[in-house]
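Fold this complex.
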Amino acid sequence: MPAAARSTVDRLDLPSAYFLGRSRKRKYDRDRDDRDDREGSPEAAPEDPLKDATTLYVGNLSFYTTEEQIHELFAKCGEIKRLIMGLDRYGKTPCGFCFVEYYTHQDALDCMKYIGGTKLDERIIRTDLDPGFQEGRQYGRGKSGGQVRDEYRDEYDPGRGGFGRAIAEERAKEEREYGLNK
Amino acid sequence: MGDYENRGRGGRGYNNRKRRYKDDDDFDRRPQRRRYEEPPVIKIRKQLLSIAETLRKPEDEIRSISQALIENYDDEELRNNVLDLILQLTVEQPFKIPFVAAVILTSNLQNPDIAKEALIRAASDARGYLEGGSWRQFKLVLRFLGCLQGLFEGDGVFTVLEELFSRAVDLQTASSDDGLGLELVKIILLTIPYTLSSSALGFEHHAASLLEKTDIITSTPHALEALVDPYPDEEKPREPVSVLTLLQRQLQTEAGRDWELACIPRVWKLPLGEDGQDPLATATKHAFPDITIPKSVNPGPKPLFPEVFFSVYADQEVETVPPSTEIASSLLRDALIDTINVLDFNRNATAKFLIDIDCYFSPDTFIKRATPFDRLKEVAGDKSTWKPEDVAVDAVFSQLFQLPTPEHKLVYYHSVLTEACKIAPAAIAPSLGRAIRFLYRNVDSMDMELSFRFLDWFSHHLSNFGFTWKWTEWSDDVELPDTHPKKAFIIGALEKEIRLSFAQRIRGTLPEPYQALIAEEKEKDAPDFKYNFDETPFALEGKEVMALLRKKAPEEEIQAVLNLIQEKAVAMGVTDSLIPSTDAYVTSICAIGSKSLSHVLSCIERCKERLLAIGPQSETARRQIITSVMDYWKDQPGVGVNIIDKLLNYTILTPMSVIEWALINHNDQRRNLAKSHIYEMVSTTVFKVTNRVRQIVAARDQEGLPEDQINMLNETLIREREEQKIMFRVIEDSLTNYARESEDEMEHNSGPNVDRKLLQKWPERWLKVFRRKLAVEEAVIGDAVKVQLKTEI
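Structure:
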């Protein structure tokens, strides 16, 4: 049988550019000292952290989407072992992402193929394979406690708290000052 | 097409340089990129990958690819690359087989080495697929060879077909419930049309003699056929016919028409030479490559079940899909199903193929895309009214409604329909509408598992498209009793919609008559805690239990209150005093965990010890756990079902307790059978058990396992299989009991009663489903046990 490593159409169950970018950066930093070797063995990659991944990062959720809704959709790809909601670091309220852990790697891959890019709660959600949840990762890394992308977003998204927080803050300030000058 | 084109551009360095460059002299607006001529290998790859993808004449593309291949054939990298790609397209994009085969046929005119090399590869692939039991891939390579029949000396592909047939006969004589032999016959029958529509001439006789021989095998109904009938009820939309029987009949009809095979494109046709001769007739011939079917064939990884033909568009006033008497029906369906199931790793690509189906068959096979259904009546004379989108969508539904199970998870087929609808809403959405109406119209006679799949798909699909559906057309059915299959469908579908969204949102999408179906209580943040109402027995104690649990009081304090409940209950004459105390305890856990699934899970985790201790004391109390959960969540049964599932994982509940609760131990028992969440609860529980047995078999069959571990696993297997058997027996017994009770009732209560008549249907529908599940497990696990015995001998 031919070694069909590369398909005639792209696969949807590969890690995203985001993940690859991060791991490439890591690899780059690691390889810095012995760069000469790189040419010789381009794909002698170390153990792929996603080889048996059973966890998915799920993004672009509405802040109002519940665990039950996520469960309802994601269970279509297999039994869910664990579901961890992403929370605002300060308010401990959902901030638009979560981790879904399945029992098997295949279920996680199927989820990438069949659920990533479809709608939940009327929003297109994003899924990405993840090496596994670690305590602390459930909190937003943005300045004000939510996700970074919700700090400077300049379009209005009612499902994710309106405008980006930094921008909303700026506007509120302007408005206050305008009131004072008057 | 992935990474090939990207190779050699050097990842990050390129980007960095570009950015820096831009910063320095931004004034120069013209891109300074070097003119880049693609190397021939990439050019040919691109052309091949997109072959026939447009409605333009594919003949020109074929000639241009072939020309480029001939010109660059000395380039070894190119040669390997292109020939590999052709064979890869054969198994990954089956629609394109006649087109890539035509490339080989055309190239052969000028350079016979190309065909020779392609045949070597095809044969080696075919042998690999045979060895691995990859029957689909084998079929597709055979189709490729069938399209190349004109290349061969002698009988060509027919030698393999004859050999396949004798293997099929062996298998059929060995066992009457053999599925593989039927699969082999199907491969033979599906190869014939492609071979006869190739450039080869004079093989009609070969085909006819094969058809004569396959007739007996294809006309004998398979033992398991009745089990996979999608419409088992007497009042069914149509009689079940196996796919194989149909195929045989269609080919016989086509033989009577001189093998017209109109839908297969004859893209190999070349303009006649100056001498008025067909250039293909005088081209170099080749020996048929060496492909021998081994004496004992590998059945492949999955057990094969007979397939019943399924169509949602079969009974319309105007034909929108080929009638099941036409060979086009099977050819289109087969190519579509392979495309769909092979490309599960990219649903967007699958959807694109579905939309573009008319590119890959003869130009007059279909009517223009997106022609509205009402417009079809105006189509003149013998022109085709087959709608490409109907044909495509029908194939997806045939998979979604495949019994016992389709190749991939159901949600894959959901996602294909969603994507197709996104790419071409104007074409696909009306087709889906007609499909939904057909399915709904016949939901009464549909297999119950399928009606559950239907509502699961329907609600999921709507959730991707703003929950819009013309509910008004079913408004009259809201009046039906809840036990009517149509009403049960509506209730179940709305419930599922709410689970994916929320009650208020779904209420907003519904016309007036449906409003009553969504109880006010569904919109509450959390259900009422029944012990807050003083008239509830043990109200005081119930509140106390919850308060203690909430503040994480020591176990003894909780035990004291539970004891109090039990004492009071005994005084009141309750036989099993553990029941009211369990009720208070579990209801309190539900209330504390009402905020979210993880809240209730962490509460269960905390109370695990006490919960685990309930079952061993009393099975009735164990079932009370289920009653308490389902009562608390009566307005959002989906949440309840989920919690039950988690309690099973904790082994606080046993599969048997869930089944007994659902099928025996309930007040309004039979009415429960019409509720989709009850079916969901039972079928997920059954799946848990059967899946475990399968996993044990899989673990045991791993290679290189030490003897003692195999023995241990075999012991577990025997034990678990026994439990599985008991479970199925309990299901069978309780359902037959229901069925008998209903009959008695019917006899003793004279007078018309619609409700009673409806009630009577449900046990039968359930029985059908779970008898099939048992038969499938027996077939799968039975085979696995047999296989092991064989290797031991």
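The CA atoms of residues 34 and 40 of chain A lie 11 Å apart.
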